[in-house]
Amino acid sequence: TQYDAMAEKCSLCEDYVVTDKCGVGEKGIDGLIKASIERKDGKHELFRGQKNIVLHASCRKKYTKPQSITRDL
After folding, report:
1. Are 36 and 47 in contact (CB under 8 A)?
2. pLDDT tens digit string along 3-36?
3. Which of 1, 35, 54, 59 might form a disulfide with 12, Cβ 3.0–4.6 angstroms?
4. Three-state SS for 49?
């Protein structure tokens, strides 16, 4: 659909980013890679080498928060 072409998907939850959009640059991606390695979810492979990633701000917060990581493991 036309909507699909315009909307980007959140790299964490795979849902469309319509609101709560958060662009992550190279420095932020390092944090996502560290969180992914701690979580052992393999997503760091997707993040590596990226220059910019689009996420929901709330997903990013939850994903990188140390308390969430230990709770989710």
Report:
1. yes
2. 555 679 999 999 999 999 999 999 999 999 999 9
3. 59
4. coil
Query: Quick check: 43 and 12 in contact, CB under 8 A?
Result: yes
Distance of CA 56 to the CA centre of its chain: 7
pLDDT at residue 49, rounded to an integer? 93
41 in any annotated domain: yes
Tell me how far apart the alpha carbons of residues 42 and 48 are, in angstroms, rounded to a whole number. 11
Does the pLDDT at position 1 exceed 50?
A: no
What is the model's pTM?
0.86
Domain that holds residue 60: 21-68
